[in-house]
Design brief:
heterodimer; A: alpha/beta; Rossmann fold; 8 helices; 9 strands; globular; B: about 475 residues; mainly alpha; two-stranded antiparallel ribbon
Chain lengths: ~240, ~475
C-alpha cells in the first residue's frame, strides 16, 4: 500500500509580485486530521500562501501540492479538494442563505438536500429565521456564518481559512472552534491564517510563524498539553524566541 | 445539471429578482408585440389602399371613350408598387421612395430620381416596426440586463467564489453567455412569432424569412457576446455600462446616421429639378417628334419613305404620325433610361459605401440584410421602377402603333367638322390593354442580396467570440 501523503505540502516556495518578493523558501505541511495555524505580521506572506494553494498566484520556484495536485498547473483540479473561507466573505445577495449554499454546493458537485444545508447553517450558528432570507440585509457576522456553513458542508480533504473568526462575537467564535474540531475529527487538513492567538492556542495542533516569507518557527501541541498563550503572544510580538508547547 | 447551466440559471434568477429588469423585459416584449400588430395593420392598410387606387386607375383608363390613341397616351395611368408580406416586418425604404408612378407618353415621372438614401435610421424613430425594435431597442435592453454579468462578479469578489468551487473561467463565461443569449432570444421571440404569422400570407417566401430569422437571431446573439466581452475586460460594472452604452450609441445610432450622409457627400446625386432641366436640355438637342422639320426626324422620314418605296408620307400604307410617335418615344425613353441608369449607378455606389461601413457597425449590416430579404431595399424599389417603366414604354408604343395602323394620315391631319370623330378609335382597344402586374423577385434572389449582410454579421460574431475567449483567459486575474 503506497504511503499516504499529507494533503498540503509546500516545499521551499519562492513567490514575488513583480520585484517584491513575498515568499522566500517557505516550507509547510499539514497532515490529514490536523489543524495548523499560520501566524505572522501584516505582509508576512500568510494570505499569499493561501492564494498559492488555491492556484490564484504562481510561485517562481519550489513546489506546492494539494492532495498531490499542483494548483499552479491544475487550479480547478486542486480547488475541487479545497474548501476556503476568505476574510472578506463574498456571497450572492440576491440569494437566501439556503440558496447560496445550494448553488455553491451544486457548482462544486456536492449538492445536498435542504435538510443537510439547514443543519449546516444551524451548526454554523445562523438562526433559523435567517435561513430563507436574502443576504442583502445580513450583517458581516451572519454572512460569515453562511460562508462557514458552505465551507464545512463541502466534505473535502482540505479546509483553508483566512481570519475565520474576525467577524464573530466570542460565543460564535467558540462555536466555530468547536466546529473545526469536528471537521478535524473527520480527517480534514485545516490550515488557518489568523491573528486570534487564543483560538489558535485552543484548537491548533501546530502553529507556524511566518516571517519575511518563510516559516521562522513551528510549534506542535501534544495530547492534552496545549500552547502557552503568553509565550505565543511574546513570540508574535517579538519574534525569534522558540515557543514552548 | 451542468455547471454552465447552473451559472446560467443563477444569472436568470438574478434578473428575475430584479424588478427593473423584469419590467424592462416585459416592456420590450410588449413593444415588439405592438410593433408587430401595428406594422401588420399599417401594411395591410397600405396594401388595401394601393390595391384600391390601382384598381381605380385601371378602371379609369379602361373607361375612356372612343378617342384618338395619342390622347390616351397623354391621359396616362397610375401604377402602384404592391408590398410583399415581409414589408410588415421591415418596410425598408418604402416610406421614403414613393410607391406610385404616373405613367404617360414622352416622359418618366416621379420616383425614378428620388434620393432613397437620404433617409436614415434616425428618421424612422417615428415608425414602430419589429425591425426597428430588434435593431435599436433590444440591444439596449440586453446591455442593461447584462453589463454587470462578469464585471459584477469581479467587482464583488464572487468570481473567485465561483472558481473556488472548481468552476473554470470558461464555464463562468459560457454560463453567463447562455443566460444572456436566452434573454436575447426571448426578446426576439415576439417578432419571430410575427414572422410565423407572415409565413401564412400569400406570397410569403420561406428562404428570405429564414434569412431574416437567422440574421436577427445572430445580431442579438452578437450583442450578448459583445456585452460579455466588455463585462470581462473591465473590473467595474459602472465602467462596463458606460462603455456599452457608448458602443450602442456609435454602432446603432451614429454610424447608421452618418454613413448615408457620408456616402451622399462622396457620391452626390442630382436632385429632381437638376435632372429635369438636364433631360429637357438633352431632349431639345435630340429633336422633337412633333416638329416635322427637325433634322433627325427629317432623316427618319426619308428612311421611312425609302423602306416603303413611296415618295410622300401621304402615300405610306401606315400613318406617318404614328411612326413619328413610335420613334419619338423610343428616343425620349432611351434618354430617360440613360439618366435613370446614371442615377441607379450613383445610388448603388452610395449603398456600396454604406455597406462598407457595415464592417464597423453590425446594425448597418443587419439593416441591409433585413431590407434585402424583405424586398424593401433600394434594389426592390429599383425593381418596381424598372418594371413600371417597361410597362409604360410597352403601353405607349402599343397606343402609338394603334395610331399608326388604325388612324389614317389624312384624318390625323384633318380639321374639318367630322375629322375629330374619324380620328377616334374604339374604346375596346384600351380595355384590351394589359394591366400592370409587379413581378416580385424569387426567394433565392432576395436571399442572394441579403447574403453580404449575413456574412458581415458572421464575421462580427467570429471576431467577438474569439475576443471573448481570449479575454476570458484573463478573467479575474490581478491587474
Amino acid at each position: 500500500m503506497p504511503p499516504m501523503t499529507d494533503p498540503i505540502l509546500i516545499d521551499d516556495l519562492t513567490l514575488a509580485y513583480g520585484t517584491q518578493r513575498v515568499l522566500s523558501g517557505l516550507s509547510l505541511r499539514v497532515p490529514a486530521g490536523s489543524i495548523t495555524a499560520l501566524l505572522g505580521g501584516n505582509g508576512a506572506g500568510k494570505s499569499t500562501t493561501l492564494s498559492a494553494l488555491l492556484g490564484f498566484t504562481r510561485a517562481q520556484s519550489g513546489s506546492i501540492a494539494v492532495c498531490g495536485i499542483d494548483p499552479a498547473a491544475d487550479p480547478d483540479g486542486a480547488r475541487r479538494h479545497i474548501a476556503y473561507l476568505p476574510e472578506n466573505v463574498a456571497l450572492y445577495e440576491h440569494l437566501s442563505a439556503v440558496e447560496n449554499a445550494d448553488y455553491l454546493l451544486a457548482l462544486s458537485g456536492e449538492r445536498q438536500p435542504r435538510d443537510a444545508i439547514v443543519e449546516g447553517l444551524a451548526a454554523a450558528g445562523l438562526q433559523e429565521q435567517a435561513w430563507d432570507q436574502r443576504l442583502g440585509g445580513f450583517s458581516k457576522g451572519m454572512r460569515q456564518k453562511v460562508a462557514i456553513a458552505v465551507a464545512l458542508l463541502r466534505r473535502v480533504p482540505v479546509l483553508l481559512l483566512d481570519e475565520p473568526t474576525s467577524g464573530l462575537d466570542p460565543r460564535a467564535t467558540a462555536d466555530f472552534n468547536a466546529l473545526l474540531v469536528q471537521v478535524r475529527a473527520r480527517g480534514t487538513a485545516v490550515l488557518m491564517v489568523t491573528h486570534d492567538l487564543l483560538s489558535a492556542a485552543d484548537i491548533a495542533d501546530r502553529i507556524a510563524f511566518i516571517e519575511a516569507g518563510r516559516v521562522a518557527h513551528e510549534a506542535s501541541a501534544s495530547g492534552a498539553e496545549r500552547f502557552d498563550v503568553r509565550a505565543l503572544h511574546a513570540r508574535f510580538q517579538a519574534g525569534g524566541a522558540k515557543v514552548a508547547a | 445539471m451542468s455547471i454552465v447551466r447552473l451559472i446560467a440559471r443563477d444569472e436568470l434568477r438574478l434578473m428575475a429578482r430584479n424588478r427593473v429588469a423584469v419590467i424592462a423585459v416585459v416592456l420590450l416584449v410588449l413593444l415588439t408585440l405592438v410593433a408587430v400588430a401595428s406594422s401588420w395593420a399599417h401594411q395591410n392598410g397600405i396594401a388595401e389602399l394601393r390595391g384600391r387606387h390601382a384598381h381605380a386607375a385601371e378602371s379609369a383608363f379602361k373607361a375612356q371613350p372612343d378617342r384618338h390613341p395619342h390622347r390616351v397616351v397623354h391621359y396616362g395611368t397610375f401604377v402602384f408598387r404592391p408590398l410583399g408580406p415581409l414589408a410588415a416586418f421591415d418596410p425598408g425604404v418604402d416610406a421614403f421612395t414613393g410607391n406610385s408612378m404616373f405613367l404617360e407618353g414622352h416622359r418618366q415621372n416621379t420616383a425614378n430620381f428620388g434620393d432613397a438614401r437620404q433617409s436614415s435610421l434616425l428618421v424612422r424613430f417615428g415608425q414602430l416596426t419589429p425591425a426597428f425594435v430588434l435593431q435599436v431597442v433590444a440591444p439596449l435592453l440586453l446591455i442593461f440586463l447584462g453589463y454587470g454579468a462578469l464585471a459584477r462578479e469581479t467587482e464583488r469578489g464572487t468570481l473567485r467564489l465561483l472558481m473556488l468551487q472548481g468552476t473554470s473561467r470558461g464555464q463562468v463565461v459560457r454560463g453567463k453567455l447562455l443566460a444572456l443569449g436566452a434573454v436575447a432570444m426571448l426578446a426576439g421571440l415576439p417578432a419571430m412569432i410575427g414572422l410565423v404569422g407572415i409565413a401564412g400570407q400569400p406570397g410569403a417566401l420561406a428562404l428570405p424569412m429564414l434569412a431574416i430569422a437567422l440574421g436577427y437571431a445572430g445580431y442579438l446573439a452578437l450583442w450578448a457576446v459583445l456585452i460579455l466581452l466588455v463585462s470581462t475586460l473591465v473590473r467595474r460594472s459602472r465602467d462596463a455600462l458606460l462603455a456599452l452604452v457608448a458602443l450602442w450609441a456609435v454602432a446603432v445610432i451614429l454610424l447608421p446616421r452618418v454613413a448615408p450622409d457620408a456616402a451622399n457627400a462622396a457620391v452626390p446625386l442630382s436632385n429632381r429639378l437638376q435632372t429635369e432641366v438636364a433631360v429637357a436640355r438633352d431632349l431639345r438637342t435630340m429633336g422633337d417628334s412633333h416638329n416635322p422639320d427637325d433634322p433627325h426626324f427629317a432623316q427618319f422620314k426619308q428612311a421611312a419613305l425609302d423602306r416603303y418605296g413611296v415618295a410622300t408620307v401621304e402615300d405610306l400604307p401606315v400613318n406617318y404620325k404614328g411612326l413619328l410617335a413610335i420613334e419619338g418615344e423610343r428616343l425620349s425613353a432611351s434618354l430617360y433610361d440613360r439618366y435613370a441608369d446614371a442615377s441607379y449607378a450613383a445610388q448603388a455606389r452610395q449603398n456600396g459605401l454604406v455597406d462598407w461601413v457595415g464592417l464597423l457597425s453590425p446594425t448597418i449590416a443587419l439593416r441591409s440584410l433585413s431590407m434585402a430579404a424583405a424586398g424593401t431595399d433600394f434594389a426592390g424599389h429599383r425593381r418596381f421602377l424598372e418594371q413600371a417603366e417597361a410597362y409604360r414604354f410597352a403601353l405607349v408604343q402599343r397606343l402609338n402603333r394603334l395610331q399608326m395602323e388604325d388612324v389614317s394620315y389624312a384624318d390625323d391631319g384633318a380639321t374639318d367638322a367630322g375629322a375629330d370623330r374619324r380620328k377616334r378609335i374604339a374604346a375596346h382597344n384600351w380595355q384590351a390593354m394589359p394591366d400592370f402586374r409587379f413581378s416580385p423577385p424569387s426567394g433565392s434572389t432576395l436571399v442572394g442580396k441579403a447574403l453580404p449582410g449575413l456574412v458581415i454579421l458572421l464575421g462580427w460574431m467570429a471576431g467577438a467570440l474569439a475576443s471573448l475567449a481570449f479575454a476570458s483567459r484573463r478573467l479575474g486575474a490581478r491587474r
